[in-house]
Amino acid sequence: MRTSHKFSPRDIEAFKNQLFHWSAQFEDIVWLNSNKDANADYDAILAIEAFTAIKTDYTQALDALEEYQQQTQDWIFGYLSYDIKNGIEDLKSKNDDGLEFPDLYFFQPQKLFLIKDNCVECLYLNMLADEIEDDLKSIENQDVLSSNNAFQNTNLIPKISKTTYLSKVEEVLKHIQRGDIYEMNFCQEFFAENHQLNPQNCFQNLNDISQPPFACFFKHEHQFALGASPERFLKKSNQQLVSQPIKGTAKRHKDSEIDKNYKLKLQKDPKEIAENVMIVDLVRNDLSKIAKKNSVKVDDLCKIYSFKQVHQMISTISAELKPEIGLKDILKATFPMGSMTGAPKVSAMQIIENLESTKRGLYSGCIGYITPEFDFDFNVVIRSILHNSLKKYTSLMVGSAITHQSIPENEYEECLVKAKALMEVLKNGQVS
After folding, report:
1. What is the pLDDT of residues 17-51, one digit of tens each?
2. pTM, to two decimals
3. Cα–Cα distances in Å, from 257 out to 254, 263, 346?
4. Cα-based torsion angle of the residue sequence 329, 383, 213, 32 in order, rounded to the nearest 10 degrees
5. Secondary structure percentages of the chain, helix, strand, coil, to 5
6. Is 231 a known active-site residue?
7. Catalytic residue among 247, 328, 332, 359
8. Is the Cβ–Cβ distance between 75 and 69 less than 8 Å?
9. Does the chain have fewer CB atoms within 10 Å around its N or its C terminus?
10. Is 130 exposed, middle or buried (0-12, 13-18, 19+ CB in 10 A)?
11. What is the DSSP letter of 254?
12. Which residue is catalytic, options 49, 189, 231, 356?
């Protein structure tokens, strides 16, 4: 079905840069960059131009995706929005939506590039195999400095005021005190209307200052996701599942001693540890529904990872999948991810809908790929800029986990820490 061509460029980083900018001409793009993360299967992946595609709302979305995956038996790339939850549980999404992304979109790419170490593998549909040589020449001749460097400084508007945010966190705390939930991820939106930007340049800037392991650029026609996610939702390798929820964030500092103290403080913070452990328990419970008996394991608990913008507390949970379990059942058991909802998950999602002011859509959903062998890897859509070029609407959302130990003012400050890199990029955002 696909023709493979492998080669080793003289300068792999230069090739990656040229490849990414060459892709701008296409209507469908998924670019995944692990930024040399040691645990990644690939350093980077580019999927372009839909041969076939599936686009649907949340109704029976997981059935449709499973059927599509079985029909293609090929690589497919795309996303599940947070609102797929409405087809899994009896839930609704009625909040404001300035972006209007479909609930689910996946496509079978005509052309695919897999990059690992110094090797590039081109996987083209057989009918397009004769275009490989010409494409590689075009990529090699790509001038990555040729884009328009005009600037449109952007100050994003908060959807809710700080005062409103603080009062809503107090409402979450009341739910926790009543025993409705133990923990909930509460999010807020910052947005700009009548806004233009150059998505490719904006993403490049964001990745340069963040360098996360699950960076992602998504484009479907006029809709874009520019992601600097540090979080993996779920990975499947053969029958092995791995989830890596993040709970616990601390800012970085230029002074190495101060930065070290921030990291140590996070490592010992009882509130952050409690947040993380609660979500680990939730993930263990989700995975146990589809895993072989006694196979769910916590490989790392509350381990600290340092990224360019933040320190993060990340746990790793693994499980061995029952042989009869398919894609629909895996996603039904695990989606949306516990780190972006709370515990118990359904109660948390009901309260999220009542208290948040923006439909989450693609934010806190996942972007990734499924292979012909039915392996997959999905990130969590956080630390991301979402843009609809037709509506000229740009949005970013940030949140934090609220527990009984939460201080509303501190939660607000955590949101700003998470938004910092995104805000910086948009304040110097290049217009198209």
Report:
1. 999 999 999 999 999 999 999 889 999 999 999 99
2. 0.96
3. 9, 10, 42
4. 70
5. 35, 35, 30
6. yes
7. 247
8. no
9. N
10. exposed
11. S
12. 231
